[in-house]
Structure formats: C-alpha cells, structure tokens
Amino acid sequence: MARQDTKIFERHYNHEYEYQLPLNEEEQYEMVFPVGLKNSVSLFVYSVTFGGGFFYSFIASPIAFQELERSQFSKVQSKVFPIYFLGQTVAPIIIGLTSAIKLCPFTKGALAVLSFCGALNCFWLLPVCRSIKEERVALEKEGKDTSEVTKRFGKFHGISTLVNMLSIISLGAYGYGLGCKLARI
After folding, report:
1. Which of 45, 102, 110, 151 is most buried, most CB within 10 Å of its CB?
2. Considering the entire predicted model, what is its pTM?
3. How many angstroms separate the CA atoms of 170 and 111, rounded?
4. Where exactly are the structural domains of the chain?
5. For the residues 103-110, what does the mean pLDDT come to?
6. What pLDDT does 8 receive?
7. C-alpha–C-alpha distance, residues 161 and 153, integer Å
8. C-alpha radius of gyration, the chain, whole number
9. Is 143 left (phi over 0), alpha (psi -120 to 50) or beta?
C-alpha cells in the first residue's frame, strides 16, 4: 500500500475502534483502488505485453513451427503477428501514460524503443515479409526456383526477429526499472 493510502487506512480503520470520520470522495476512491486504477492498468498492460511476448516468441511460436506444416504455420502467424506487433506499438504508450512510477530517461527510453520496434515490425517488416511470402507461393505454383525469394525472406525475417528480440529486451529493461523503483516504496 502506498504511504498516502496507509495514512488514509490508519485514519479510518485504526485498531482502537475510535470514532471514524467519514471518507471524502477522493479517499473513498483511494480505498477502493489502493494502488490506483491508473497504476493497475499500467502494471496489467506491462504484464500482458511482456508475458505474452515472451511466451509467444520463445514457447508457442517455436512449438507451432515444429508441429505444423509451413503453410499452416504461415496462416497462424499471419493472423497473430498484426495483433502482436500492434500491441507492441500501442502498449508502451498506455504504460507510459499510466505508469506506476515516475518515468526517468532510462524507462522512457525502454518504452520508446519498444514502441518503435513494434511499429517497425507492424508497418514495415510485416508487409515486406508478407509480400515476399506471396511471391514465393506464386513461384512454387508455377514450379519455378524459389531460392532467391527464400533467401530474401530469410533476410527480412531475421531482421524482424532481431527487432522483436530488442523489443522484448526493452520490456525487460523497463521491468527492471519498474522493479527497482517499486522496491523503494
């Protein structure tokens, strides 16, 4: 409980059962949401973004790649990635606006990197990779050589993977800053 919330709690709910003053509207809100609704939103969005990104990147996606045929895997990824990358773009903005901590240059930088990486993947790399995949599928249907297109796809997919790793690292860096500041409370 934050220090201010503790004071409100002690004032109205002391152990001696003294006469309690009625809570004003602001104090009622603070007792219902002791951490604050704004801070709760920030922590929730951060947790979902970091946990979801880590889980999808390191667990779900590799398993799907191993277990599904390439065309099935591609269909799954084409449905997930637009939402995933848009989330990486928007979540840092929500986190920054509702942050449970005062943002310093380090945490602002981590959120900015995350948003930039999400936007880069969502609005540039994803469309490029999608068009290369469509080109490869068309060449396969015609029975033509796809080695050059596959190599080009690998290049852009590799860049996208590195950008995704950078975004997960920046989420971890923000989480480290968040944890350090919350530990002081």
Report:
1. 110
2. 0.77
3. 7
4. 1-34, 37-183
5. 92
6. 46
7. 12
8. 23
9. left
